[in-house]
């Protein structure tokens, strides 16, 4: 089964160079790219979950092997330590996981949109490319105004 799909994929790649390439072949390639990016995002999320778990266990290990006198201070109570562990782990996960996943998803969306636009109508795609810097400038101005 996989060899049939691989043979079809190679035939599509050869056929894309032709002037009369079928749009369904192109959409099949886009589908394969979307599946690949989806799997990549899932694997990245798994890695980020393992990273957060590893961070939490390392911090907890440091707390366990700390001297008893350290826990006598008010700022080192068990509730404060538990809250700090949770807060730090959530901060690491949001810093690495969510922001990077959103960045990868947005880049993939823009690239796929441009590929579809160039395949459908090249002149309109060039117009969109010319407007990208203007959209970036407006986003920057809006971001500055929210601060």
Automatic annotation (TrEMBL):
It is found in: Membrane. Residues 32-147 form the ABC transmembrane type-1 domain. Pfam families: ABC_membrane. It comes from the Eukaryota. This is ABC transmembrane type-1 domain-containing protein. InterPro entries: ABC1_TM_dom, ABC1_TM_sf, Type_1_exporter. It is a multi-pass membrane protein. The chain crosses the membrane at residues 28-53, 99-118, 124-143. Keywords: Membrane, Transmembrane, Transmembrane helix.
């Amino acid at each position: 089964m996989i060899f049939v799909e691989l043979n079809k994929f190679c035939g599509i790649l050869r056929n894309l160079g032709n002037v009369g390439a079928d749009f369904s072949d192109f959409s099949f390639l886009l589908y394969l790219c979307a599946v690949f990016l989806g799997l990549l995002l899932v694997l990245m999320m798994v890695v980020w979950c393992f990273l957060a778990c590893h961070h939490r266990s390392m911090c907890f290990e440091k707390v366990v092997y700390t001297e008893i006198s350290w826990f006598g201070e008010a700022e080192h109570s068990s509730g404060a330590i538990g809250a700090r562990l949770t807060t730090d782990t959530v901060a690491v996960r949001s810093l690495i996981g969510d922001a990077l996943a959103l960045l990868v998803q947005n880049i993939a969306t823009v690239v796929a949109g441009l590929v579809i636009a160039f395949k459908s109508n090249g002149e309109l795609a060039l117009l969109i490319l010319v407007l990208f810097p203007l959209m970036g400038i407006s986003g920057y101005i809006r971001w500055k105004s929210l601060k």
